[in-house]
Amino acid sequence: MLVTGGAGGIGRAIAAAFRDEGDDVVLADVRGAGEAAAELGVRGVDADITDEDSIARALAEAGPVDVLVNNAGLLSVHGTLLDLPADAMLDILRTNVHGTFLVTQQVARQLVADGRSGVIVNLSSIGGRQPTPGMGGYESSKAAVDALTRWAAVELAAHGIRVNAVAPGPVLTPMLAAGMPEGSPAREAWVNRIPLRRMASVEDVAGLVVFLASERAAHMTGTSVPVDGGQLLT
């Protein structure tokens, strides 16, 4: 199985969860893949998901992929509708939407050509359904990922390929924890939006990804499943 953006945060937890299930895990990232893979005891490949040739090289190195997790994405660029630079919006879409499309397309082509079934799990966000001021560029890209998930699911079902998405709310990655320490007003503001009164852990997200890739979810395709502590209820 292949997880993109696997060198840190959610991607690293996903790679570890599949490793613990006994899967042959290949971790792909634009930087740091080798070091992260060595620490996890899995394989690593360099890959820029916005570059078709880079994706093709990574897939050739990884070998046949039966489970793809499209985790790589751009989260760090934000701005209001009036202030977000146009080129910044294009960067968000190029990575989160076009990059997800490119990797999905190449893996799906291989599966279909080989006559193999498979599973694709995309990382979306509840932000695609619930807006937060200043995050609309990112959230628009994740709404597009949900649409891409449905598109791929309906066209690939005949080939035995299931496509779903996981839509987290705020996730307590090491980077987020450093920027919003416990007790800080910013962190409390996020937690107060969540009925379960805590942010998701990276393990919460990874567990759902593993479930969707497993035979326990064999009749699920084309859906985006929230893991948000109930935030969409508010």
Instruction: Determine the CATH topology.
Output: Rossmann fold
Helix content: 40-55%
Structural class call reads alpha/beta
CATH homology superfamily: NAD(P)-binding Rossmann-like Domain
Biggest sheet, spatial arrangement of strands = 3-2-1-4-5-6-7
Beta content comes to 5-15%
Count of extended strands:
7
**CATH class type:** Alpha Beta
CATH architecture: 3-Layer(aba) Sandwich
Major sheet summary line: 7 strands, parallel
* Radius of gyration, in angstroms, nearest whole number: 17 Å
Structure description:
The chain is an alpha/beta fold and 234 residues long. It contains eight helices and seven strands, in the order βαβαβαβαβαβαααβ. It has helices at residues 9-20, 33-40, 52-62, 86-114, 136-156, 174-179, 185-191, 202-213; strands at 2-4, 26-29, 43-46, 67-70, 118-123, 161-168, 224-227. The chain has a seven-stranded parallel beta sheet with strand order 3-2-1-4-5-6-7, with helices on both faces. α1 (9-20) crosses α8, α3 packs parallel to α4 and α4 (86-114) runs parallel beside α5 (136-156).
